[in-house]
Each structure stands twice: as C-alpha cells, then as structure tokens.
Amino acid sequence: MIVTFLVKSFLTLFVVIDPIGLAPIFIILANDRTSEERLTIARQAVLFAALILLVFSLIGPALLRYLEISLDAFQVAAGILLFKIAIDMVFTQPEQNNPSVAEENPSQPDITVFPLAIPLIAGPGTLASIVILVGESENYLSGLLMVLAVTAVVLAIAYGILHLSDYLAQILGKAGIDVITRVLGVLLTALAVQYIANGAMGLLQG
Q: What is the pTM for the complete model shown?
C-alpha cells in the first residue's frame, strides 16, 4: 500500500509539474543568458517552488478545514482544473500553455519567482495535487514526510532537466518534446477524471 501511494504521488506530481515540458519554455525565457546564469536561475526557481509547496502542504489542509471545504469537494475542483491543464498539454504547443509566459521578455532581470517558480513549477494544479496527496497521506505513518520526499525528488528531476535543457532540446528536438508533453497530457487527463470521480463519489456518500 505504501509503495502504491509513493508511486501514485510521484506520477501525479511529475505529470502535473511536467519537467520535460518546462524545458522549451525555460530555453525561451533564458535564451540570452550565459550557461552559468541559466544554472543559477534554474536552481533559485526550484528552491522558491520548493518553499511554496512546503508551506502549502503544511497549511493547505488546515485552510480547507477553516473554510469548511471538504477534501471531496476540493478533489472535484482539482480534477476540473487538472483536466483543463491536460487539455492544453494535449492540444496546444508547450509554449501556448502559458500565453503570458510565451510573451515574457527574456531580457527581464528576474524570471526566477515569476514565471518559473510560480506558476510554471508550483502552479495551481501542483498546489491542488499537494493538498489531495497530503489528505490521502493521513492514512499512512509518516505520510506527510513521504509526500514531501516525493516532492523533493520530482523537483530535483525538474532542476536536472532545466540544467540540461539545452542538451535536451538538441537531442529530442521540438517534435520529440511535443510528443512527450502530449503523452503526459493524456495521463493527466485520466488522472483528472479519476479525481473528479473519486470526489463526486465521496460527496454523494456524504
């Protein structure tokens, strides 16, 4: 059961954060920077995103309880949100998933917090997934620590891919990145439908 939860958590966060899909956007935003500057930007963006996700994982569930929002209702809302993100991943170009990002001037002095850390890495879909996973982790001993550990692993992978984004772009090419992004989008669509189904069932039973 624990292994299943860990695998589910990893796949959920990996698909939602979409490290591979971040690579072409990162290349656009930082295309006038030196390799050392790109490395610094990638590291700082991931650290900021990690801080955002850590804070939200700790206070998110309590905030829902304070607002009297059930986990089932939040799960339905999260599923709808993730479904929209998944549709964008499948039917549009990676750059078009975030139009404001695509139009961002790469010569801006600071792109670490916005748009890299949020909304590209710690976006609304990621925050929603964190809350759901933290809620589910209550069924396991040290479940919160497991979610945080999995989150750290996914963020480490994201950092590695951003660090190697230039090489990745050369190896995969635009077509390769598009294909991988669309496959992840299909998986996210299925996950979103499952979120909605599980939440709706919980609401009906409640």
A: 0.73
